[in-house]
Request: fold
Amino acid sequence: MDKLQHITTIYLNDQHSLFAEELVKKLPEGLDQVYFTSSGSEANALASQFARLHTKNYSIMTLGNGYHGHGGSSYLTNMPSYSHDIPKTQGVELAPFPDMYRCPYPIDEAPQRYADQLKQNIEFSTSGNMALFMVEAVQGAGGIVPVPKEFMQKAIPHVRAAGGLLLSDEVQTAFGRMGTHYWGCEMLGYKPDILTMAKHIGNGFPLACVATTKEIAASYKKMTFSTYGSNPIAMAAGREVLKIVDEEGLQEKSRINAEYMHAGFKYLEDKYEQVGDVRGHGLMLGIEMVKDKESKIPNPELFTDVWERTKNYGLLLGKGGRGGNVFRIQPPMAIT
Ligand SMILES: Cc1ncc(COP(=O)(O)O)c(C=O)c1O
Reply:
């Protein structure tokens, strides 16, 4: 082996194993195996295979209004804006959308009612056996919709009774962005069997990850590989992200900055009839534009008008929600 190749090999091995070791230390208890991919979609597709192989069950449930990726993961996504006129892969069933804004139930009863609906969906659309229940703690593309903690508490026993594993899709909610917690699942008070990450894990580098337990990982008995999955530069970027989030106290900064912004957005909600709902956790905030507070009819025209103007002022905001009418405010965690 020539010298350059030798150095490259050492560097590659080094970055991969060091990052894996450092990441496992930050993961929720029990998750000690990591597998790197280059996108969140790839991570979720692989995670679904893990769950099916481990449980030997087929049915996967994902929440209405959830986004879990494109391509091989598009069948896990339940948003009209990303659905096409092609058949969805069999064995992926719809769990309810626990919507607290346009909620058909009395608000205090909603988590229980949505969990009852989930139980019914398991009964009617699966054999009674489940492989996986997949959740974003705060739905991102869906328009910054926090999944209620109480709903999870009531839904999880039904999933467990059907033999299902729990997957926390933390592509948007991880690494302290929630402010109060490092992981979204911790904020919802449950322990996932599988956790997927992408986006800020590499701070812009194509890097994503599936984390799980030794037992679940062991169920995947054949070889797999991802050409760019453990790219050494991306591994180095991942290591740096973990370090900087801690060293610069970005979780706490996110909490403080989010509180400040949330209060400002609430002021807008009180002041304007068309600002229907302000919601979110940490630096994942949403402002939903409606025709009026009573009807809650989405107002994509007004949204687009304001969106274009904020862009002209040099402020880039995200767009989301079923109606394309929700501002997604998810700035870098390093903002001041
Ligand atoms: C919650 C969630 N899961 C999965 C994905 C897919 O990740 P990627 O775009 O890296 O394939 C996204 C992307 O926006 C996401 O927000």
